[in-house]
Amino acid sequence: MKELAMSLSKVKEKTPLIQAITNYVTINDCANILLAIGASPAMCEATDEAYEFSQISNAVYLNIGTFTKEQELAMPLAVKGADEKKIPVVLDPVGCGAIPRRIDYINKLRKFGKIHVIKGNLGEIKSLLGVDSKVRGVDSIDDGTDGVEVCKRLAKKWSCIVAATGKTDIITDGEKVCLVNNGTEMLTKITGAGCMVGALTAGFCGANDDLLIATAASHLVMSLAGEKAVKAKEGNLPGTFRMKLFDEIYQIDEAAIEQGGNIEWL
Ligand SMILES: Nc1ncnc2c1ncn2[C@@H]1O[C@H](COP(=O)(O)OP(=O)(O)O)[C@@H](O)[C@H]1O
Ligand SMILES: Cc1ncsc1CCOP(=O)(O)O
Ligand SMILES: [Mg+2]
């Protein structure tokens, strides 16, 4: 737990610059959550800028939730630019379970350079591996069966870190597995909780060398902040919950992680 907690302090010390090419439903939430945790977001997706900007960033966040032509062309440039400078890339394959052409695109994107972390809901992660899964558009309605095994298989196949969100988040490099048991169902009652975890993951990866710890920590921070936000006055209502979530992300510290974290290593 100590390592996860310390990775938060690294974010605050370094203020990593995060290039995000992300969907227009939750782009503002992703920028705000990165600011709240202590990172510096820049939503830089123009094809004429994506390559250069990736090279001055500390991490790149790619999210295909509202997949525009501009983003389709900019993402390979950002991946190539990041790869040349060994900058970590985090990809959220939003909707790939419901829209198969997104899987074809991700397979092409991987040829432009390393994608260090794939983070999706469990339905999306299963879909990437070609395993039967239950999704409804951008949401997972998967019952969680075989989650750990599927994540390990994808992580080994693509030599990357895989994180699958749900009631329990699963984070693995293909060997070690971290389960994050914190969270609240209220996180599923606002749009963008998954996108925001992805943005936070880029923030943590931009400030920490150990990307497995960084990814586990970002998931834990989001789940813990959700638990605290739901306890606020009217925090069980989506509007208040969303606002309180940002406040809790802003206030979370090492002590809160060590006291409240409920994780298991397999
Ligand atoms: N049933 C649940 N109980 C507690 N936390 C949950 C639950 N479902 C999802 N979460 C949390 O909500 C966040 C978003 O996950 P999820 O809803 O799976 O992603 P997405 O929004 O991409 O579909 C994660 O932090 C996850 O841990
Ligand atoms: C509703 C919606 N439609 C396209 S992207 C998007 C946001 C998805 O956000 P999340 O995956 O975090 O629920
Ligand atoms: Mg999602």
From TrEMBL:
The keyword Transport does not apply. It catalyses: 5-(2-hydroxyethyl)-4-methylthiazole + ATP = 4-methyl-5-(2-phosphooxyethyl)-thiazole + ADP + H(+). Its cofactor is Mg(2+). The keyword Calcium does not apply. Substrate binds at M43, G192. Pathway: Cofactor biosynthesis; thiamine diphosphate biosynthesis; 4-methyl-5-(2-phosphoethyl)-thiazole from 5-(2-hydroxyethyl)-4-methylthiazole: step 1/1. InterPro entries: Hyethyz_kinase, Ribokinase-like. GO terms for molecular function: ATP binding; hydroxyethylthiazole kinase activity; magnesium ion binding. Gene3D superfamilies: 3.40.1190.20. ATP binds at K119, T165. GO terms for biological process: thiamine biosynthetic process; thiamine diphosphate biosynthetic process. Its EC number is 2.7.1.50. Keywords: ATP-binding, Kinase, Magnesium, Metal-binding, Nucleotide-binding, Thiamine biosynthesis, Transferase. Belongs to the Thz kinase family. Catalyzes the phosphorylation of the hydroxyl group of 4-methyl-5-beta-hydroxyethylthiazole (THZ). This is Hydroxyethylthiazole kinase. It comes from Anaerovirgula multivorans. The lineage of its organism: Bacteria, Bacillati, Bacillota, Clostridia, Peptostreptococcales. The gene is thiM.
